[in-house]
Write a structure and sequence with these properties.
Layout (H helix, E strand, L loop, with lengths): L1 E5 L4 H12 L4 E5 L4 H10 L8 E4 L2 E4 L1 H9 L1
Parallel strand pairs: 1-2
Antiparallel strand pairs: 1-3, 3-4
Helix pairs in contact: 1-3
Pfam families: Glutaredoxin (PF00462)
GO molecular function, one term: electron transfer activity
GO biological process, one term: cell redox homeostasis
């Protein structure tokens, strides 16, 4: 299952969710602006990424929106 680390005001996060929904791919969304625990979880998954979305698939880092789009469209 995909996991999207996002914020409520992130346009690329919305695009990622729409892309997954359009392809009937299940996902879980984790808001990193709601708790320090969620933010720290995201930083452990992707310590070098500076922006959201941070997207994983079954615990493995996919990347951001463009990496997700490349993977889904492949």
């Amino acid at each position: 299952m995909y996991k999207i680390y996002s914020t409520k005001s992130c346009g690329y996060c919305e695009r990622a969710k729409s892309l997954l929904a359009a392809n009937n791919l299940p996902f879980e969304e984790v808001y990193v602006d709601e708790s320090a625990e969620n933010f720290n979880e995201m930083k452990n998954v992707a310590p070098n990424m500076k922006t959201v979305p941070v997207i994983t698939l079954n615990g493995l880092l996919v990347g951001g929106f463009y990496e997700l789009k490349e993977k889904v469209d492949a």
